[in-house]
User: Fold this.
Amino acid sequence: MTAPQPLRPPPLRPHPLRLPVQRLRRRLRPRHRPRFRGLSFNRVIPNLLTMIGLCAGLTAIRFALEARFGDAAVAITVAGAIDGLDGRLARLLKATSRFGAEFDSLADFLCFGVAPAIVIYLWSLQALHGFGFVPCLMFAVCMALRLARFNAALESGPHPAYAYNFFTGVPAPAGAGLALFPLFVGLEARSLDLPWLAEAARFPPFDALVLVGTALLLVSRLPVWSFKNFKVPAEYVLPLLLGTGLFFALLVADPWAALAAAGLLYVGMLPFSARSFRRLRQAAEGAAEGDGPSP
Assistant:
């Protein structure tokens, strides 16, 4: 005979309210969203600004090919304004990177080295044919050398404390503005109906001289104020604010006159910048000699 099977207890039936409660808990349980690897949007914003500036430089070349030289000047000016923002925004958001620095240099070369040279060539220098293209080549090459020197200086050893407030040579956006100075004068002369001034501004030898002079300023060792840590004395704060307000009012009312005047003021500032650098260097060298070991 087989042994009797042990009696198994009947299966417990779940409470009728337990299943709906479990389903509700599953629905209310926080879902784990997948994490995507990559950069945050804040770190991409400076590169987006750089790309917009690059598009502005390319658009300036297109406007120049269509003989819309005023629009080309505006596009290069917009690229210069963007160039002044993307680096500061990257440092503010702590989004500086090697990729951003290289991308910014390539965009600067096109916007401030290639685009102004093409604009001036199509506006004036093409009347000299092949000879008129030589200053354009010189300007673009000097702009590339200036940007390469700037990138190499970032990786070199530490500089004296007084040197951080100065550029070596005219910076790229300022160089583009100086190269476009004849165009600004010509557009202003046309708006004022001054044909003699327009012809003088469009005189090819004069424009070639401006391009060559600007190219030499780009690769020179001239110390130029960077205005990054520029300290303004308290008595000059109010005049500076008033002067800045007047300049922007003039920029809105008569942009070509304002940009031409800004170019003249910038060139007039260069000797004072060099004198300030020499004074700071002499003071630093005198302090170093005073702190040296006594005989």
In short: The first strand starts at residue 166 and ends at 168. The chain has one domain: 41-280. The mean pLDDT is 84.
